[in-house]
Amino acid sequence: MSTFCFSRQPLDPVALAAGLADPAAGGYVSFEGWVRNENEGREVRRLDYEAFEELALKEGARIVAEAIDHFGVREARCVHRIGELGIGELAVWVGVASGHRAEAFDACRYIIDEVKHRVPIWKKEHYLNGDSGWVNCERCAEAAQDHRHHHGG
Amino acid sequence: MARVRLRYYALLREQAGLGEELVESAAADVAGLYAELVDRHGFRLARAQLRVAVNSEFSDWSRPLADGDEVVFIPPVAGG
Q1: In angstroms, what separates the C-alpha of B72 from chain A's closest C-alpha?
Q2: Count of domains in chain B?
């Protein structure tokens, strides 16, 4: 199994954790990102995740390798869903197996933080009122428009 | 002129109204190509808000275009 991958099917964290089983590991830390019913004051009905998979797989694997190298953990993996997800579904899983707990927590935190900032994955929220929007994109698109108008005016 | 393949994702895919296209561009680099596409498709994201990939690897904006390149402009990401 590669250290970073995508799934179009629901994730099973118990099975994923079993994949990290290692007699030399004294600790296992995981992070589960769940689909929340609210974002920035708006009620969310469901999400669509989309990825530029060729590059995302490479960048995701680089992040996991950085975490293993930097924190000295034994093994780490990350799996991200793509497609349509409902409230409460598991959207992203990170698992780290390590000799000791401290570096497992640090590596797990590093992986989820870097994945959110660096891997080309996009999330479209569908709101209860029928609207929808790409997270982190709609507002900056508006900001760019305002900026242009400001300079053009 | 360089013939390049463009693939669009997320907000840019919706604004362009298509997932990919082949274009001939006289732009000197990928930054110039994005400026052409802003005119063609009305993209509202400023270049400073994007990253760019050429042939499935992150690239500088100053990279010259070559025939056969596959270019992806990457809107702000939101994994997790």
Answers
A1: 9
A2: 1
Residue B25 lies in a domain: yes
Q: What is the ipTM of this complex?
A: 0.96
Among A6, A50, A55, which would you mutate to test the B interface (most chain B Cβ atoms within 10 Å of its Cβ)? A55
- B/e letters for B39-62, b = 16+ CB within 10 Å, e = fewer, are eebebbbbbebbbbbbeeeebeee
Would you say the pTM of this structure is higher than 0.90?
Answer: yes
Q: Each residue's pLDDT tens digit in chain A (153 positions)?
A: 699 999 999 999 999 999 999 999 999 999 999 999 999 999 999 999 999 999 999 999 999 999 999 999 999 999 999 999 999 999 999 999 999 999 999 999 999 999 999 999 999 999 999 999 999 987 766 666 665 555 433
Q: Count CA atoms closer than 13 A to A93's CA, side-chain side.
A: 22
What architecture does CATH give domain A4-152?
Alpha-Beta Complex (3.90)
Nearest to A140 among B9, B72, B76 (CB): B76
Residue B44 belongs to a domain: yes
Q: What are the sequence ranges of the domains in chain A?
A: 4-152
